[in-house]
Amino acid sequence: MRVRLSPLLGAAVMLCPSTAHAELSREYRALLAAADVRQDDEEFLATADLIATVTPGGRSDVRAAVAELLPRRLDVLRAWDQTARDPVALEPEIVQAARRGTPQVSIVDAPETDDERVAPASGAGADSAGSDTGTAEAEPGEVRHWPGRMDWFHPHHWDGRAKAGLAIDSGNTDQTNYSMALEVSRPLNGGWGFDGKTEYFYTENAGNVTRDRWLVEARGERPTVDAWSFYLGSSYEQDRMSGFDYTAVLSAGATLHALDDNRTSWVLRAGPGARHRVPTDEGGVTQWVLELGSVYDFAVTETAQFSSETTLLAGPASRAEQRFKLTTAISEDWGLELGYRVKHEFDAQPGREETDSRLDVSIVHEF
Fold first, then answer.
1. 3-state secondary structure labels for all residues of the chain
2. What domains are there in the chain, each with its CATH number?
3. What's the distance, CA 307 to chain centroid?
4. Which terminus of the chain, N or C, has fewer Cβ atoms within 10 Å?
């Protein structure tokens, strides 16, 4: 769901007037952070311009805040370098100067000498020096970002879940596997959002590997109009026990957020794609497919979440997959998850059953 920041900025101007503090206020820094998540480069520059008109330090304070909080957006502010001056302030310069504590009248009868300079009062001068050198400590709850491009990997930008447990297979194989999974998401520049997932299953029986399956999925999504978005998706699955060395899928299409409230979320997607499959000991083949998907989430209680995910790849050798999950929180960051998956191959490999099912029991840690 996209949120327009202009009304928020207008409210901040009225409720959070400029102060004499040398840095950008916490409210304006929060607006910049929100703009970074929801706006593309052009919209972010417009928001930064608006903030610069209502803060005493103008563009210099905004640029300093962006350098500290959102260094990857500094390139956007280079457009300011082509402008000689800050935008016209909303207050007269004499009022802004008074807020900064800067005198408007200077005595120029004689040049100032070192002997005539008055030493700053203890405390105030030290504070100013610390502020100018940027050595002031972060306020409680403030995030210290990493320099340059390394900030892309900063944990502050990422949300996710790590899972470990057991998976009980039935169908082509009847066995119990060890399982691990990692799910991550984060906002990207230009209004994009990223979601990724990887799963790994492994089992040995009498010294022989009977399950060695690895799945990786990545999806980028960008909101467009109202509840609509478009997406780019990919997946890679390696599982020799399935009759294929590996399967890779690339797809793109539209997403509709049909429901989005405090307890319920329902997302539908559809789009064309290409699937490349390599049967065991055979050559690979690439086929066009139509991807149809549905993800439904429902908060059963404050501590329990139900999810249903459906995926259909329609085309030559169509495949359908259905997943159900029930997650129960046992603490603030830990939970238990019970899952059930059914996969149906409409054109299974010779000697393979069309339907596989799996029961998952996992411990979940959210971060």
1. CCCCCHHHHHHHHHHCCCCCCCCCCHHHHHHHHHHHHHCCHHHHHHHHHHHHHHCCCHHHHHHHHHHHHCHHHCCHHHHHHHCCCCCCCCCCHHHHHHHHCCCCCCCCCCCCCHHHCCCCCCCHHHHHHHHHHCCCCCCCCCCCCCCHHHHHHCHHHCEEEEEEEEEEEECCCCEEEEEEEEEEEEECHHHCEEEEEEEEEEEEECCEEEEEEEEEEEEEEEECCCCEEEEEEEEEEEEHHHCEEEEEEEEEEEEEEEEECCCEEEEEEEEEEEEEEEECCCCCEEEEEEEEEEEEEEECCCCEEEEEEEEEEECCCCEEEEEEEEEEECCCCEEEEEEEEEEEECCCCCCCCCEEEEEEEEEEEEC
2. 6-153 (no CATH), 158-366 (2.40.160.40)
3. 20
4. N
Instruction: Find all residues with CB under 8 Å of 111, minimum gap 6, and list them.
Output: none
Phi-psi label, residue 324: left if phi above 0, alpha if psi -120 to 50, beta otherwise: beta
Q: Measure the CA–CA gap between 37 and 6, rounded to whole angstroms.
A: 14
Chain center to CA of 87:
32
Nearest to 272 by CA among 285, 286, 255, 289: 289
Residues 6+ apart with CB under 8 A from 182: 160, 161, 162, 163, 197, 198
pLDDT at 4: 45
Instruction: Specify the residue for token string 């009022």.
Output: 95
Query: What residue ranges of the chain have pLDDT lower than 50?
Result: 1-21, 86-136
| C-alpha to C-alpha distance for 139 and 23, rounded to whole angstroms | 12
Instruction: Please indicate, yes or no, whether the overall pTM of this predicted structure exceeds 0.85.
Output: no
**Per-residue pLDDT, 272:** 97
> Could you read off the pLDDT of 30-44 as tens digits, one per residue?
888 888 877 888 888
* pLDDT tens sequence across 97-117: 444 444 444 444 444 444 444
